[in-house]
Amino acid sequence: MITTDPIGDWTWEIASSGDGATAAGAAETAVSIWGILAKHELAVPAGEASISVRSVNDMRNVHLDMSGLILEADPLRPGTAVSGAVEQAGTLKGDLLVSLRIRCPGIWLESGVKHRAEQLFAIQVDVWKSSLTVVTLETYSDAWLTMDTREREQAAVHAENAPRLTAALVEVSALLGSNPEPGDPNRHATPTEAGFEDPRTEGPAYSDSWGTFEIAARSRRLRSGLPPAEDEYPETTDSPVRYFAIQRETQTLGYVWASVNNDAAGYEPRTAAGDAAFKAGTQWLLLLRNAHNQGLTPLKALEWLTRVPPRPEIGSIDEDAPEESPSLDDLEDLSGRY
User: Fold this and answer.
1) Which end of the chain is more exposed for a tag (fewer CB within 10 A), N or C?
2) Sign of CA dihedral 234, 210, 155, 169
3) Is residue 172 a contact partner of residue 33, using CB atoms and an 8 Å limit?
4) Nearest Cα to Cα of residue 276 among 251, 243, 303, 308
5) CA–CA separation, 78 vs 201, rounded Å?
């Protein structure tokens, strides 16, 4: 399953000597780690970077904040967006926190088939007052676990993917000259220096952690971009659901659905599609509100959506007839897995 919050993380701390840590050094470290992930297809083009500079004594004092920087093949060569941002950060003086973050699309495997997630890993490099560099690597997939976050054993998936993560962690540690400090156990998994503990040994921390926490987190994220509404379709149902995939070019962004019992309708973001799934989803939910205001039942609303004038930026319904899922839970599972 793909999550919006990390499954686990690892941290390395590096005390600086000589001239101290710099923004340029932070960028070189982050890009080198990206290269290690890319070697194992844990990162693939094109990543996206952000950089910020804040006063250590007052984090509200932001000197620089740049996001959406495309990570090109050679991101630190002169003239690239990343190198320009790093150069600006390097001109700033004082007791500063320089933070560089790379969001890494990557590949996870199942039965030899490659599946892409738009945020499989994230790399964060923080430089504190030019004296301490803290590197954090986060992952947003449970492909490294012997049981997925819905408590299903996945020995074959683990065998295909966990060695790639372990190899990358070893190489990052060699690059940085120290072993990582695994992140704390969380509601999904327990990180170790080499990957993750086997949840089959003592059982997972929570029953169906993905269904328990991730569905609610996705709903909050979707609705944070919506204006308040007095009345709309309920977003939960116990009945089977009919749904259309929302396509944008070759990518599935999510699924708009209505219950067979005509008592609910909604949108499930395909988590692996990343930010685009949520940005499009708010617009599809607004369209469902429009249908509700017209007095359409959920199933009629689903039919009405197929006749809405196309808007390429939010994707489109390309199917002639909806698919049917035995439950909303099954559709949610599809949206979080593939």
Assistant:
1) C
2) positive
3) yes
4) 251
5) 51
d(C-alpha 133, C-alpha 199), whole Å: 32
Q: Would you say residue 292 has pLDDT above 60?
A: yes
Look at the block and give the residue holding tokens 């984090």.
59
Nearest alpha carbon to residue 137 among 20, 67, 69, 43: 43
- Which has the closest alpha carbon to 123: 140, 144, 143, 109? 140
Both structure tokens of 54: 């804040």
Instruction: Count CB neighbours of 235 within 10 A.
Output: 17
Q: Binning pLDDT at 50, 70 and 90, where does residue 20 land? A: low
Q: What is the 3-state secondary structure (H, E, C) of the chain?
A: CECCCCCEEEEEEEECCCCCCCHHHHHHHHHHHHHHHHHCCCCCCCEEEEEEEEECCEEEEEEEEEEEEEECCCCCCCCCHHHHHHHHHHCCCCCEEEEEEEEEEEEEEECCEEEEEEEEEEEEEEEECCCEEEEEEEECECCCCCECCCCCECHHHHHHHHHHHHHHHHHHHHHHCCCCEECCCCCCCCEECCEECCHHHHCCCCCCHHHHHHHHHHHHHHHCCCCCCCCCCCCCCCCCEEEEEEEECCEEEEEEEEECCCCCEEEEECHHHCHHHHHHHHHHHHHHHHHHHCCCCHHHHHHHHCCCCCEHHHEEECCCCCEEECCHHHHHHHHHHC
pLDDT tens column, 98-110: 999 999 999 999 9
Burial of 241 (0-12, 13-18, 19+ CB in 10 A): buried
Question: Environment class of residue 220 by beta-carbon count within 10 Å: exposed (0-12), middle (13-18) or buried (19+)?
Answer: exposed
Mean pLDDT of 141-163: 96
Other Cβ atoms within 10 Å of 279 Cβ, number: 16
Name the phi and psi angles at 72, rounded to 5: -75, 175
Amino acid occupying residue 153: E
Do residues 261 and 320 lie in contact, with contact meaning Cβ atoms separated by under 8 Å? no
Tokens linked to 172: 């990052």
